[in-house]
Amino acid sequence: MIQTKTPFLSAALSALLMFDGGVALANELNSSDLSILPKADIYLLGERHGSPIHHANQAAVTAQIKPRALVFEMLSPAQVASAKDVPLNDADALEKAFDWNATGWPDFALYAPIFAAAPSAVIYGAAVPISQIRDAMQLGAAGAFEGDAKRFGLDLALDQDEQDTRETYQAEAHCNALPAEMLPGMVEVQRLRDVEFSRVALAALEATGGPVVVITGNGHARRDWGMPVYLTAAAPESATVAIGQLATPPSEPVFDHWMLSEPVKDEEDPCAAFDSN
Fold first, then answer.
1. pTM for this structure?
2. How far is CA 269 from its chain centroid?
3. Does an H or E element contain 42, and which?
4. What are 175-194's pLDDT values in tens digits?
5. What's the CA gap between 202 and 126, in Å, rounded?
6. In sequence order, what E strands does 109-180 have?
7. Phi and psi (nearest 5°) for 53?
8. How far apart are CA 43 and CA 31, in angstroms?
9. What are phi and psi for residue 134, nearest 5 degrees?
10. Tens digit of each residue's pLDDT (9 = 90 or more) over 104-122
């Protein structure tokens, strides 16, 4: 029988989120002074994809951490293998080896400084194959995950409040253009990606000893339902710090730390095509 989690962001959980292993949480970070960044095994560096300032901040934080491993949401293991002999400070060679232009991600020039900030790090790709994405839509995240679902708590059903909240989040993230019947499957895809990124991060930690930096979207870094949920379930002894990048401070303690920046003024509105004239 599938078990159900405790209520989404209960008062007790909200209180517990304020501390992690005795480290005070919910602090704003400034890229010019990262001295308050606590020690951890795994750092989740969130971003809004395509924001130059977010990637610049990730490079600055990465340089401060000096990770032994870098995990990228944007790369597959095969892409990483194709670049295994390329110096991490050779942006042109990396871009070519990764065949970055075929990935659909923003310009590699935005990500190149992150690689250069950790020139001796081991690179890991955590991208989920499209076949598994399709399976998650049909079978759920636990059915599509090729690892130990129970170890990561993926066998636990979401509380209904969290399910509803996450379906709303998915609808808004896709410009309210998806049929309602697709939203539960989209939540399962998000869960699958979160748990796969977590599995790769823990493998990187075990192989290198850490620290490990994960480059990913803000949604995957958030502590209430993103990677920290699965990292804590699978490896409660490992310390994780989740950093979000936002325009305003979060109303809930969903990140351990955050970095604030103005939205990119000329950034194209992805939902503009759905607006009626």
1. 0.86
2. 22
3. strand 42-45
4. 988 888 888 889 999 999 99
5. 11
6. 122-125
7. -70, -35
8. 15
9. -60, -40
10. 999 999 999 999 999 999 9
